Amino acid sequence: MLKLLKSGFFTTIQDSGRFGYRDKGVPVSGVMDDYAVSKANMLLENPATSAVLEITMTGPTLEFDEDTYICLAGAELAATLNNEPVQNYKVYKVSSGDILSYGKLEKGFRGYLAVKHGFVTPIILGSRSFYKPMTEVNRLKDKSEVPYEACAFFEPKIQELKVDSLLDETVLGVHVGPEYGLLTDKQLEALFSEDFTIAKENNRMAYQLENLIEGHTISMLTSATLPGTVQITPSGKLIVLMMDGQTTGGYPRILQLSQKAISILSQKKFRDRISFKLV
Amino acid sequence: MSNYPISIRPFGVHAILVEWPKKVEEPILDDILQFGQYLKTHCLDQEDWEQVPSYNSLTLIHRKSPFDFDKFKRKLLDWYSGMEQRTLVQKFLWRLPVCYELEFGIDLGEVSEQLGKSIPEVISMHTENIYTVYGIGFLPGFMYLGGLPPSLETQRRANPRQKVEKGAVGLAGKQTGIYPQESPGGWNIIGNCSVPIFDKEKDKPCFVNVGDRIQFYQISKAEYDLHKIEGEVGIYQMEKIKIDA
Protein backbone atom coordinates (compact mmCIF):
# COMPACT_ATOMS: atom_id res chain seq x y z
CA MET A 1 0.00 0.00 0.00
CA LEU A 2 0.95 3.58 -0.59
CA LYS A 3 -0.19 5.61 2.42
CA LEU A 4 -1.18 9.23 1.95
CA LEU A 5 -0.02 10.81 5.18
CA LYS A 6 -1.19 14.08 3.64
CA SER A 7 -3.30 14.06 0.50
CA GLY A 8 -2.22 17.32 -1.14
CA PHE A 9 -4.63 19.68 -2.92
CA PHE A 10 -6.25 17.33 -5.42
CA THR A 11 -4.69 13.90 -5.82
CA THR A 12 -6.34 11.20 -7.92
CA ILE A 13 -5.67 7.85 -9.57
CA GLN A 14 -5.74 8.01 -13.38
CA ASP A 15 -4.96 5.61 -16.18
CA SER A 16 -5.37 5.82 -19.95
CA GLY A 17 -9.13 6.32 -19.65
CA ARG A 18 -12.59 4.78 -19.63
CA PHE A 19 -13.56 3.91 -23.18
CA GLY A 20 -16.74 2.49 -24.67
CA TYR A 21 -19.36 4.37 -22.65
CA ARG A 22 -19.37 7.79 -24.29
CA ASP A 23 -22.72 7.02 -25.91
CA LYS A 24 -24.07 6.69 -22.34
CA GLY A 25 -22.63 10.01 -21.27
CA VAL A 26 -19.55 8.72 -19.44
CA PRO A 27 -16.48 10.96 -19.89
CA VAL A 28 -13.23 9.30 -20.91
CA SER A 29 -11.26 10.61 -17.89
CA GLY A 30 -7.66 9.42 -17.55
CA VAL A 31 -4.39 11.30 -17.13
CA MET A 32 -4.42 14.94 -18.20
CA ASP A 33 -0.76 15.01 -19.28
CA ASP A 34 -0.38 11.85 -21.31
CA TYR A 35 2.95 13.08 -22.70
CA ALA A 36 4.50 12.99 -19.22
CA VAL A 37 2.83 9.80 -18.02
CA SER A 38 3.63 7.75 -21.10
CA LYS A 39 7.33 8.41 -20.49
CA ALA A 40 7.18 7.45 -16.82
CA ASN A 41 5.36 4.19 -17.62
CA MET A 42 7.81 3.50 -20.41
CA LEU A 43 10.81 3.89 -18.10
CA LEU A 44 9.22 1.48 -15.60
CA GLU A 45 8.42 -0.85 -18.54
CA ASN A 46 4.76 -0.78 -17.54
CA PRO A 47 1.87 -1.28 -19.96
CA ALA A 48 0.71 2.10 -21.30
CA THR A 49 -2.60 1.64 -19.49
CA SER A 50 -1.00 1.46 -16.01
CA ALA A 51 -2.56 3.71 -13.38
CA VAL A 52 -0.58 6.53 -11.80
CA LEU A 53 -1.11 9.12 -9.09
CA GLU A 54 -2.06 12.52 -10.52
CA ILE A 55 -1.00 15.33 -8.22
CA THR A 56 -2.36 18.84 -8.64
CA MET A 57 -0.57 22.02 -7.54
CA THR A 58 0.29 20.93 -3.98
CA GLY A 59 1.78 17.49 -3.55
CA PRO A 60 0.97 14.87 -0.93
CA THR A 61 3.23 13.20 1.63
CA LEU A 62 3.46 9.51 0.89
CA GLU A 63 4.76 6.44 2.67
CA PHE A 64 5.56 3.20 0.87
CA ASP A 65 4.99 0.00 2.82
CA GLU A 66 6.54 -2.37 0.28
CA ASP A 67 9.60 -2.28 -1.95
CA THR A 68 9.10 -1.10 -5.48
CA TYR A 69 10.42 1.21 -8.19
CA ILE A 70 8.99 4.62 -8.98
CA CYS A 71 9.27 7.35 -11.57
CA LEU A 72 8.04 10.94 -11.33
CA ALA A 73 6.83 13.01 -14.27
CA GLY A 74 5.06 16.21 -15.28
CA ALA A 75 5.10 19.30 -13.09
CA GLU A 76 8.16 20.13 -11.01
CA LEU A 77 7.11 20.02 -7.37
CA ALA A 78 10.42 19.85 -5.47
CA ALA A 79 9.91 16.19 -4.57
CA THR A 80 12.18 14.46 -2.07
CA LEU A 81 12.61 10.81 -1.16
CA ASN A 82 13.67 10.56 2.48
CA ASN A 83 14.72 14.21 2.18
CA GLU A 84 16.92 13.62 -0.89
CA PRO A 85 15.85 15.46 -4.06
CA VAL A 86 14.14 13.34 -6.71
CA GLN A 87 14.25 14.12 -10.43
CA ASN A 88 11.52 13.63 -12.97
CA TYR A 89 11.89 10.85 -15.56
CA LYS A 90 14.36 8.82 -13.53
CA VAL A 91 13.74 5.38 -12.00
CA TYR A 92 14.28 5.15 -8.23
CA LYS A 93 14.11 2.14 -5.97
CA VAL A 94 12.03 2.66 -2.85
CA SER A 95 11.92 0.48 0.24
CA SER A 96 9.29 -0.16 2.83
CA GLY A 97 9.04 2.86 5.14
CA ASP A 98 10.41 5.35 2.60
CA ILE A 99 8.74 8.76 2.53
CA LEU A 100 8.12 10.71 -0.66
CA SER A 101 7.14 14.29 -0.07
CA TYR A 102 6.56 17.30 -2.25
CA GLY A 103 7.55 20.92 -1.81
CA LYS A 104 6.85 24.10 -3.68
CA LEU A 105 5.28 24.08 -7.13
CA GLU A 106 8.16 25.22 -9.33
CA LYS A 107 6.86 24.66 -12.82
CA GLY A 108 3.70 23.24 -14.40
CA PHE A 109 0.55 22.26 -12.51
CA ARG A 110 0.14 18.46 -12.51
CA GLY A 111 2.76 16.03 -11.31
CA TYR A 112 2.67 12.26 -11.64
CA LEU A 113 3.92 9.35 -9.60
CA ALA A 114 4.20 6.10 -11.51
CA VAL A 115 5.01 2.86 -9.76
CA LYS A 116 6.28 -0.44 -11.18
CA HIS A 117 3.23 -2.48 -12.37
CA GLY A 118 0.94 0.52 -11.76
CA PHE A 119 -1.49 1.21 -8.91
CA VAL A 120 -4.21 -1.41 -8.59
CA THR A 121 -7.32 0.34 -7.30
CA PRO A 122 -10.62 -1.23 -8.51
CA ILE A 123 -11.42 -1.22 -12.22
CA ILE A 124 -14.85 0.26 -12.88
CA LEU A 125 -16.21 0.04 -16.43
CA GLY A 126 -12.78 -0.76 -17.76
CA SER A 127 -10.77 1.91 -15.96
CA ARG A 128 -9.31 2.83 -12.58
CA SER A 129 -9.57 6.55 -13.33
CA PHE A 130 -11.29 8.57 -10.63
CA TYR A 131 -14.52 10.18 -11.76
CA LYS A 132 -17.44 10.49 -9.41
CA PRO A 133 -19.86 8.65 -9.43
CA MET A 134 -18.02 5.93 -11.40
CA THR A 135 -15.64 5.85 -8.45
CA GLU A 136 -16.98 6.44 -4.92
CA VAL A 137 -14.70 9.42 -4.40
CA ASN A 138 -13.38 12.09 -6.74
CA ARG A 139 -10.02 12.46 -4.98
CA LEU A 140 -7.84 10.76 -2.40
CA LYS A 141 -8.20 12.04 1.15
CA ASP A 142 -5.70 12.19 4.02
CA LYS A 143 -4.88 8.73 5.39
CA SER A 144 -6.16 6.89 2.33
CA GLU A 145 -4.20 3.91 1.05
CA VAL A 146 -3.55 3.03 -2.56
CA PRO A 147 -2.66 -0.59 -3.38
CA TYR A 148 0.30 -1.63 -5.54
CA GLU A 149 2.17 -4.87 -6.09
CA ALA A 150 5.57 -5.09 -4.45
CA CYS A 151 8.60 -5.41 -6.71
CA ALA A 152 11.84 -6.51 -5.09
CA PHE A 153 14.07 -6.33 -8.12
CA PHE A 154 13.85 -4.62 -11.47
CA GLU A 155 16.66 -3.63 -13.77
CA PRO A 156 15.37 -0.89 -16.06
CA LYS A 157 16.71 -0.84 -19.62
CA ILE A 158 16.82 2.92 -19.35
CA GLN A 159 17.45 4.45 -15.96
CA GLU A 160 16.89 8.05 -16.84
CA LEU A 161 15.38 9.93 -19.77
CA LYS A 162 16.15 13.38 -21.02
CA VAL A 163 12.69 14.72 -21.85
CA ASP A 164 11.87 17.74 -23.97
CA SER A 165 9.73 19.36 -21.33
CA LEU A 166 6.42 20.85 -22.42
CA LEU A 167 6.15 22.89 -19.22
CA ASP A 168 7.42 26.09 -20.82
CA GLU A 169 5.41 25.74 -24.01
CA THR A 170 2.50 28.12 -24.43
CA VAL A 171 1.40 27.51 -28.01
CA LEU A 172 -1.44 25.02 -28.36
CA GLY A 173 -1.48 23.22 -31.70
CA VAL A 174 -5.07 22.87 -32.86
CA HIS A 175 -7.08 21.27 -35.65
CA VAL A 176 -10.26 22.81 -37.00
CA GLY A 177 -13.41 21.82 -35.12
CA PRO A 178 -16.74 20.98 -36.79
CA GLU A 179 -18.13 24.53 -36.52
CA TYR A 180 -14.85 26.28 -37.42
CA GLY A 181 -16.36 27.33 -40.74
CA LEU A 182 -18.99 29.45 -38.98
CA LEU A 183 -16.42 31.77 -37.39
CA THR A 184 -16.30 35.37 -38.63
CA ASP A 185 -13.10 37.03 -39.83
CA LYS A 186 -13.07 39.07 -36.66
CA GLN A 187 -13.32 35.98 -34.48
CA LEU A 188 -10.61 34.18 -36.46
CA GLU A 189 -8.34 37.18 -36.20
CA ALA A 190 -8.76 37.30 -32.41
CA LEU A 191 -8.45 33.53 -32.02
CA PHE A 192 -5.05 33.32 -33.68
CA SER A 193 -3.48 36.64 -32.70
CA GLU A 194 -4.33 37.03 -29.02
CA ASP A 195 -2.72 35.51 -25.97
CA PHE A 196 -5.45 33.95 -23.82
CA THR A 197 -5.36 33.93 -20.04
CA ILE A 198 -6.45 30.86 -18.07
CA ALA A 199 -9.49 31.70 -15.93
CA LYS A 200 -9.82 30.49 -12.35
CA GLU A 201 -12.49 28.09 -13.60
CA ASN A 202 -10.07 25.38 -14.64
CA ASN A 203 -10.13 21.75 -13.66
CA ARG A 204 -10.17 18.22 -15.07
CA MET A 205 -13.51 18.90 -16.78
CA ALA A 206 -12.68 22.11 -18.59
CA TYR A 207 -10.43 25.13 -18.81
CA GLN A 208 -12.21 28.44 -19.30
CA LEU A 209 -10.29 31.32 -20.85
CA GLU A 210 -10.66 34.87 -19.57
CA ASN A 211 -10.50 36.88 -22.79
CA LEU A 212 -13.80 37.14 -24.62
CA ILE A 213 -13.85 37.18 -28.39
CA GLU A 214 -16.81 38.37 -30.48
CA GLY A 215 -19.97 36.45 -29.52
CA HIS A 216 -22.42 34.66 -31.79
CA THR A 217 -26.06 33.65 -32.18
CA ILE A 218 -25.44 30.22 -33.71
CA SER A 219 -27.90 27.68 -32.40
CA MET A 220 -27.16 24.00 -32.83
CA LEU A 221 -28.56 20.70 -31.74
CA THR A 222 -26.69 18.92 -28.95
CA SER A 223 -23.87 16.85 -30.40
CA ALA A 224 -20.72 15.01 -29.29
CA THR A 225 -17.75 16.74 -27.65
CA LEU A 226 -14.28 15.33 -26.99
CA PRO A 227 -11.39 16.02 -24.64
CA GLY A 228 -9.63 18.97 -26.26
CA THR A 229 -12.75 20.42 -27.90
CA VAL A 230 -12.79 24.24 -27.78
CA GLN A 231 -16.35 25.57 -27.48
CA ILE A 232 -17.49 29.16 -27.84
CA THR A 233 -20.44 30.43 -25.79
CA PRO A 234 -22.87 33.05 -27.20
CA SER A 235 -21.05 35.75 -25.21
CA GLY A 236 -17.73 34.80 -26.82
CA LYS A 237 -16.16 32.91 -23.94
CA LEU A 238 -13.92 30.00 -24.88
CA ILE A 239 -14.20 26.74 -22.97
CA VAL A 240 -11.67 23.97 -23.57
CA LEU A 241 -13.04 20.58 -22.54
CA MET A 242 -10.53 18.30 -20.82
CA MET A 243 -10.41 14.61 -19.82
CA ASP A 244 -13.47 14.68 -17.50
CA GLY A 245 -15.40 16.90 -19.92
CA GLN A 246 -18.99 16.06 -20.77
CA THR A 247 -19.57 13.87 -23.82
CA THR A 248 -22.13 16.13 -25.52
CA GLY A 249 -22.67 19.85 -25.72
CA GLY A 250 -24.67 22.53 -27.43
CA TYR A 251 -22.03 25.21 -28.12
CA PRO A 252 -20.17 25.47 -31.43
CA ARG A 253 -16.99 23.36 -31.44
CA ILE A 254 -14.55 25.65 -33.17
CA LEU A 255 -11.18 24.01 -32.51
CA GLN A 256 -9.82 20.64 -31.47
CA LEU A 257 -6.57 20.52 -29.50
CA SER A 258 -3.87 18.11 -30.64
CA GLN A 259 -2.95 15.38 -28.13
CA LYS A 260 0.24 17.27 -27.33
CA ALA A 261 -1.71 20.51 -26.78
CA ILE A 262 -3.94 18.76 -24.22
CA SER A 263 -0.78 17.85 -22.32
CA ILE A 264 0.56 21.41 -22.57
CA LEU A 265 -2.70 22.92 -21.31
CA SER A 266 -2.89 20.38 -18.46
CA GLN A 267 0.19 22.01 -16.99
CA LYS A 268 -1.32 25.51 -16.99
CA LYS A 269 -2.95 27.24 -14.04
CA PHE A 270 -4.97 30.38 -13.26
CA ARG A 271 -3.46 33.46 -14.99
CA ASP A 272 -1.05 31.51 -17.21
CA ARG A 273 -1.23 32.46 -20.86
CA ILE A 274 -1.59 30.38 -24.00
CA SER A 275 -2.19 30.93 -27.70
CA PHE A 276 -3.62 28.83 -30.52
CA LYS A 277 -1.91 27.79 -33.72
CA LEU A 278 -3.36 25.65 -36.49
CA VAL A 279 -1.32 22.53 -37.21
CA MET B 1 -32.30 3.36 -49.52
CA SER B 2 -30.50 6.19 -47.80
CA ASN B 3 -32.06 9.39 -48.88
CA TYR B 4 -30.72 12.16 -46.70
CA PRO B 5 -28.04 14.58 -47.80
CA ILE B 6 -25.34 14.00 -45.18
CA SER B 7 -22.36 16.21 -44.53
CA ILE B 8 -19.07 14.98 -43.13
CA ARG B 9 -16.67 17.22 -41.26
CA PRO B 10 -13.35 16.78 -39.45
CA PHE B 11 -13.33 16.76 -35.66
CA GLY B 12 -9.64 16.65 -34.81
CA VAL B 13 -7.56 13.75 -36.12
CA HIS B 14 -9.21 10.98 -34.10
CA ALA B 15 -12.84 11.75 -34.82
CA ILE B 16 -15.21 12.59 -37.64
CA LEU B 17 -18.66 14.12 -37.55
CA VAL B 18 -21.47 12.97 -39.82
CA GLU B 19 -24.46 15.30 -39.91
CA TRP B 20 -28.01 14.93 -41.16
CA PRO B 21 -30.38 17.84 -41.84
CA LYS B 22 -30.71 20.03 -38.75
CA LYS B 23 -34.12 18.87 -37.56
CA VAL B 24 -35.48 17.02 -34.55
CA GLU B 25 -37.32 14.21 -36.34
CA GLU B 26 -37.68 10.51 -35.67
CA PRO B 27 -37.03 9.41 -39.29
CA ILE B 28 -33.70 11.27 -39.22
CA LEU B 29 -32.75 9.72 -35.88
CA ASP B 30 -33.72 6.29 -37.26
CA ASP B 31 -31.51 6.79 -40.30
CA ILE B 32 -28.59 7.79 -38.05
CA LEU B 33 -29.04 4.70 -35.91
CA GLN B 34 -29.36 2.46 -38.97
CA PHE B 35 -26.13 3.83 -40.38
CA GLY B 36 -24.41 3.42 -37.02
CA GLN B 37 -25.57 -0.18 -36.81
CA TYR B 38 -24.47 -0.83 -40.40
CA LEU B 39 -21.00 0.59 -39.68
CA LYS B 40 -20.74 -1.54 -36.54
CA THR B 41 -21.75 -4.74 -38.30
CA HIS B 42 -20.04 -4.36 -41.66
CA CYS B 43 -17.38 -1.67 -41.65
CA LEU B 44 -15.71 -0.64 -38.42
CA ASP B 45 -13.90 -2.69 -35.80
CA GLN B 46 -15.88 -2.33 -32.57
CA GLU B 47 -12.75 -2.56 -30.43
CA ASP B 48 -11.30 0.59 -31.91
CA TRP B 49 -14.31 2.74 -32.68
CA GLU B 50 -16.83 4.51 -30.51
CA GLN B 51 -20.02 6.08 -31.80
CA VAL B 52 -21.94 8.96 -30.27
CA PRO B 53 -25.33 9.48 -31.93
CA SER B 54 -27.25 12.61 -30.96
CA TYR B 55 -30.24 14.39 -32.60
CA ASN B 56 -28.97 14.96 -36.16
CA SER B 57 -25.40 13.75 -35.88
CA LEU B 58 -23.22 10.70 -35.51
CA THR B 59 -19.68 11.19 -34.23
CA LEU B 60 -17.20 8.40 -34.87
CA ILE B 61 -14.13 8.31 -32.64
CA HIS B 62 -11.06 6.14 -33.10
CA ARG B 63 -9.62 5.22 -29.72
CA LYS B 64 -5.99 4.92 -30.73
CA SER B 65 -4.75 6.23 -34.01
CA PRO B 66 -5.31 9.33 -36.07
CA PHE B 67 -6.73 8.77 -39.55
CA ASP B 68 -6.79 10.57 -42.87
CA PHE B 69 -9.94 12.66 -43.08
CA ASP B 70 -10.40 12.78 -46.86
CA LYS B 71 -9.92 9.04 -47.36
CA PHE B 72 -12.22 8.15 -44.50
CA LYS B 73 -14.84 10.64 -45.62
CA ARG B 74 -14.96 9.00 -49.08
CA LYS B 75 -15.32 5.58 -47.50
CA LEU B 76 -18.15 6.80 -45.27
CA LEU B 77 -20.01 8.32 -48.22
CA ASP B 78 -19.65 5.03 -50.13
CA TRP B 79 -20.86 3.06 -47.15
CA TYR B 80 -23.81 5.37 -46.65
CA SER B 81 -24.94 5.25 -50.25
CA GLY B 82 -24.32 1.49 -50.39
CA MET B 83 -26.35 0.77 -47.27
CA GLU B 84 -29.07 -1.08 -49.11
CA GLN B 85 -30.29 -3.52 -46.58
CA ARG B 86 -32.08 -2.04 -43.64
CA THR B 87 -30.27 -3.41 -40.61
CA LEU B 88 -32.69 -3.99 -37.80
CA VAL B 89 -32.04 -1.70 -34.87
CA GLN B 90 -33.92 -3.15 -31.91
CA LYS B 91 -35.62 -0.45 -29.93
CA PHE B 92 -37.57 -0.52 -26.72
CA LEU B 93 -40.25 1.51 -25.03
CA TRP B 94 -39.25 1.76 -21.36
CA ARG B 95 -41.97 2.45 -18.84
CA LEU B 96 -40.42 4.31 -15.96
CA PRO B 97 -42.13 4.59 -12.57
CA VAL B 98 -42.31 8.09 -11.13
CA CYS B 99 -43.61 9.16 -7.74
CA TYR B 100 -45.20 12.60 -8.12
CA GLU B 101 -45.91 13.03 -4.39
CA LEU B 102 -45.14 16.57 -3.27
CA GLU B 103 -42.18 15.41 -1.17
CA PHE B 104 -40.47 14.64 -4.52
CA GLY B 105 -42.38 16.96 -6.85
CA ILE B 106 -41.16 20.04 -5.04
CA ASP B 107 -41.99 22.40 -7.91
CA LEU B 108 -45.32 20.84 -8.91
CA GLY B 109 -47.22 23.68 -7.24
CA GLU B 110 -45.34 26.35 -9.19
CA VAL B 111 -45.59 24.38 -12.44
CA SER B 112 -49.33 23.97 -11.98
CA GLU B 113 -49.70 27.70 -11.43
CA GLN B 114 -47.46 28.61 -14.37
CA LEU B 115 -49.39 26.32 -16.74
CA GLY B 116 -52.82 27.10 -15.34
CA LYS B 117 -53.52 23.39 -14.90
CA SER B 118 -54.25 21.37 -11.78
CA ILE B 119 -51.51 19.11 -10.41
CA PRO B 120 -53.38 15.91 -11.47
CA GLU B 121 -53.71 17.40 -14.98
CA VAL B 122 -49.97 18.11 -15.13
CA ILE B 123 -49.22 14.55 -14.01
CA SER B 124 -51.63 13.02 -16.49
CA MET B 125 -50.19 15.05 -19.39
CA HIS B 126 -46.67 14.10 -18.36
CA THR B 127 -47.50 10.39 -18.18
CA GLU B 128 -49.73 10.14 -21.27
CA ASN B 129 -47.04 11.24 -23.62
CA ILE B 130 -44.33 9.02 -25.14
CA TYR B 131 -40.88 10.58 -25.42
CA THR B 132 -38.03 9.77 -27.78
CA VAL B 133 -34.43 9.55 -26.56
CA TYR B 134 -32.53 11.84 -28.96
CA GLY B 135 -29.26 11.72 -27.10
CA ILE B 136 -27.49 10.67 -23.90
CA GLY B 137 -24.90 13.02 -22.44
CA PHE B 138 -24.23 15.92 -20.08
CA LEU B 139 -24.06 13.40 -17.20
CA PRO B 140 -23.73 9.59 -17.34
CA GLY B 141 -27.22 8.33 -18.21
CA PHE B 142 -28.78 11.75 -18.79
CA MET B 143 -31.35 11.39 -21.58
CA TYR B 144 -32.26 14.19 -23.96
CA LEU B 145 -35.97 13.48 -24.46
CA GLY B 146 -37.96 14.90 -27.34
CA GLY B 147 -41.70 15.11 -27.68
CA LEU B 148 -42.83 17.22 -24.75
CA PRO B 149 -46.29 18.63 -25.53
CA PRO B 150 -46.24 22.46 -25.79
CA SER B 151 -48.83 22.56 -23.01
CA LEU B 152 -46.11 21.37 -20.59
CA GLU B 153 -43.48 23.93 -21.55
CA THR B 154 -42.30 25.90 -18.52
CA GLN B 155 -39.66 28.47 -17.68
CA ARG B 156 -36.46 27.24 -16.09
CA ARG B 157 -36.10 28.18 -12.45
CA ALA B 158 -34.73 31.70 -12.06
CA ASN B 159 -32.30 30.44 -9.42
CA PRO B 160 -30.83 27.02 -10.16
CA ARG B 161 -30.51 24.68 -7.19
CA GLN B 162 -27.08 23.73 -5.89
CA LYS B 163 -28.33 20.21 -5.35
CA VAL B 164 -31.01 18.25 -7.19
CA GLU B 165 -31.66 14.71 -5.95
CA LYS B 166 -30.69 11.65 -7.95
CA GLY B 167 -33.73 10.42 -9.89
CA ALA B 168 -35.43 13.83 -9.89
CA VAL B 169 -37.78 14.25 -12.85
CA GLY B 170 -37.75 17.74 -14.27
CA LEU B 171 -39.39 20.05 -16.77
CA ALA B 172 -37.70 23.01 -18.47
CA GLY B 173 -38.54 24.67 -21.76
CA LYS B 174 -39.18 22.01 -24.40
CA GLN B 175 -37.45 19.38 -22.30
CA THR B 176 -38.26 16.80 -19.69
CA GLY B 177 -35.85 14.32 -18.16
CA ILE B 178 -34.34 12.60 -15.18
CA TYR B 179 -31.26 13.63 -13.23
CA PRO B 180 -29.31 10.34 -13.17
CA GLN B 181 -27.20 11.48 -10.23
CA GLU B 182 -27.21 14.24 -7.67
CA SER B 183 -26.15 17.44 -9.41
CA PRO B 184 -26.82 21.17 -9.56
CA GLY B 185 -29.78 21.99 -11.77
CA GLY B 186 -32.26 24.60 -12.92
CA TRP B 187 -35.19 22.46 -14.00
CA ASN B 188 -38.59 22.41 -12.29
CA ILE B 189 -38.74 19.19 -10.30
CA ILE B 190 -42.07 17.37 -10.53
CA GLY B 191 -41.29 13.88 -9.23
CA ASN B 192 -38.69 11.19 -8.71
CA CYS B 193 -38.04 8.02 -10.68
CA SER B 194 -37.54 5.01 -8.43
CA VAL B 195 -35.20 3.09 -10.74
CA PRO B 196 -31.63 4.14 -11.54
CA ILE B 197 -31.01 5.05 -15.19
CA PHE B 198 -27.30 4.46 -14.75
CA ASP B 199 -25.84 1.66 -12.65
CA LYS B 200 -22.07 1.31 -12.81
CA GLU B 201 -22.24 -2.16 -11.23
CA LYS B 202 -23.92 -3.60 -14.32
CA ASP B 203 -22.14 -4.84 -17.45
CA LYS B 204 -24.49 -2.62 -19.40
CA PRO B 205 -24.58 0.30 -16.99
CA CYS B 206 -27.31 2.17 -18.87
CA PHE B 207 -30.22 0.14 -20.25
CA VAL B 208 -31.49 2.95 -22.46
CA ASN B 209 -30.15 3.50 -25.97
CA VAL B 210 -30.51 6.56 -28.15
CA GLY B 211 -33.65 5.96 -30.25
CA ASP B 212 -35.57 4.20 -27.47
CA ARG B 213 -38.87 5.58 -26.21
CA ILE B 214 -39.73 6.53 -22.65
CA GLN B 215 -43.09 6.70 -20.95
CA PHE B 216 -43.53 7.65 -17.32
CA TYR B 217 -46.21 6.13 -15.10
CA GLN B 218 -47.37 7.29 -11.71
CA ILE B 219 -46.63 5.27 -8.59
CA SER B 220 -47.44 5.80 -4.92
CA LYS B 221 -44.88 6.47 -2.21
CA ALA B 222 -45.30 2.86 -1.00
CA GLU B 223 -44.52 1.50 -4.48
CA TYR B 224 -41.59 3.89 -4.73
CA ASP B 225 -40.14 2.55 -1.48
CA LEU B 226 -40.71 -1.03 -2.64
CA HIS B 227 -38.88 -0.40 -5.94
CA LYS B 228 -35.97 1.09 -4.04
CA ILE B 229 -35.66 -2.06 -1.93
CA GLU B 230 -36.10 -4.33 -4.96
CA GLY B 231 -33.45 -2.30 -6.74
CA GLU B 232 -30.98 -2.66 -3.89
CA VAL B 233 -31.32 -6.45 -3.79
CA GLY B 234 -31.35 -6.63 -7.57
CA ILE B 235 -34.80 -8.11 -8.22
CA TYR B 236 -36.53 -5.10 -9.72
CA GLN B 237 -37.94 -5.94 -13.16
CA MET B 238 -37.96 -3.07 -15.61
CA GLU B 239 -41.03 -2.76 -17.80
CA LYS B 240 -40.05 -2.74 -21.43
CA ILE B 241 -41.86 -3.26 -24.69
CA LYS B 242 -40.12 -4.11 -27.98
CA ILE B 243 -40.66 -1.67 -30.80
CA ASP B 244 -40.29 -2.93 -34.35
CA ALA B 245 -37.76 -0.92 -36.25
How would you summarize this macromolecular structure in one to three sentences?
The complex is a heterodimer of chains A (about 280) and B (about 240). With about 280 residues, chain A is mainly beta.
Written description of the protein model:
The complex is a heterodimer of chains A (279) and B (245). Chain A is mainly beta. Chain A contains three helices and 20 strands. In chain A, the strands form four sheets. Chain A has a seven-stranded mixed barrel. In chain A, strands 7-6-9-4-1-11 form a six-stranded antiparallel β-sheet, with no helix packed on it. The longest helix of chain A has 10 residues, at 34-43. Chain A starts with a strand and ends with a strand. The relative contact order of chain A is 0.19. Chain B is an alpha+beta fold and 245 residues long. Chain B contains five helices and 14 strands. Helix content of chain B is 26%, strand content 31%. The mean pLDDT of chain B is 93.
Oligomer: heterodimer
Mean pLDDT of chain B: 93
Major sheet size, sense and barrel closure of chain B = 8 strands, mixed
What is the helix content of chain A? under 10%
First and last CA, distance of chain A: 44 Å
* Uncertain residue ranges of chain A: none
How many helical elements of chain B?
5
Strand % of chain B is 25-35%
Distance from first to last alpha carbon of chain B? 15 Å
Over the alpha carbons, how many angstroms does the gyration radius of chain B reach? 20 Å
Helix and strand string of chain A, N-terminal first? Answer: EEHEEEEEEEEEEHEEEEEEEHE
Give descriptors for this structure.
heterodimer, A: 279 residues, mainly beta, 6-stranded antiparallel β-sheet, 3 helices, 20 strands, elongated, B: 245 residues, alpha+beta, 8-stranded mixed β-sheet, 4-stranded antiparallel β-sheet, 14 strands
